[in-house]
Amino acid sequence: NNRTKVHFNAVGIWQTASFDGSLMLRPVFGSAVNPAVSVNNEVETFENFEIYPNPASHTINFKISGNVDNHYHIQLVDLHGRNIIETESSISNQLDVSNLSNGIYFICFTNSETKNSVFKKVIISK
Fold it and tell me: Which of 99, 113, 114, 124 is most buried, taking the most CB atoms under 10 A from its CB?
């Protein structure tokens, strides 16, 4: 038990640990390899999606370049993760945001065939 030898500084004052036992550290030396976070090689690129104007006040226009035959499911999500608007790209290339309050939102484009998604940040400012 090394309780008397373990100290921490959380509020500007060094204090002795209140738990019994020993502190164990596992340092990593050198450069670590970044782990793979995706196994899908066919990822939509951010360059394929243009959103304008940003910041927007009344409408958000979007343009999907590249393979225009693909259809996209589009969701506008607030910072709390709530779906605000949900539509398909085949219906229109713009979203009416005139009834939304000022703030930061995320727009998610999901390819209907491949199910790959791309997120973009949108600012509503009136």
Answer: 124
pLDDT at 11: 79
Q: Distance between CA 68 and CA 61 in Å, rounded? A: 16
- Of the candidates 81, 125, 79, 77, the one whose C-alpha atom is nearest the C-alpha of residue 102 is 125
Question: Which band of pLDDT confidence, cut at 50, 70 and 90, is reported for residue 34?
Answer: low
Q: How far is CA 53 from CA 50, 83, 118, in A?
A: 9, 21, 18
Evaluate if pTM is beyond 0.85: no
Long-range contacts made by residues 92-98, C-beta under 8 angstroms, separation at least 24? 93/61, 93/62, 93/63, 94/59, 94/60, 94/61, 94/62, 95/59, 95/60, 95/62, 96/58, 96/59, 97/56, 97/57, 97/58, 97/59, 97/60, 97/124, 98/57, 98/58, 98/59
Q: Give long-range contacts, CB 8 A cutoff, 24+ apart: 3-9.
A: none
Amino acid, res. 75: Q
Q: Fill in the amino acid letter for 85.
A: I
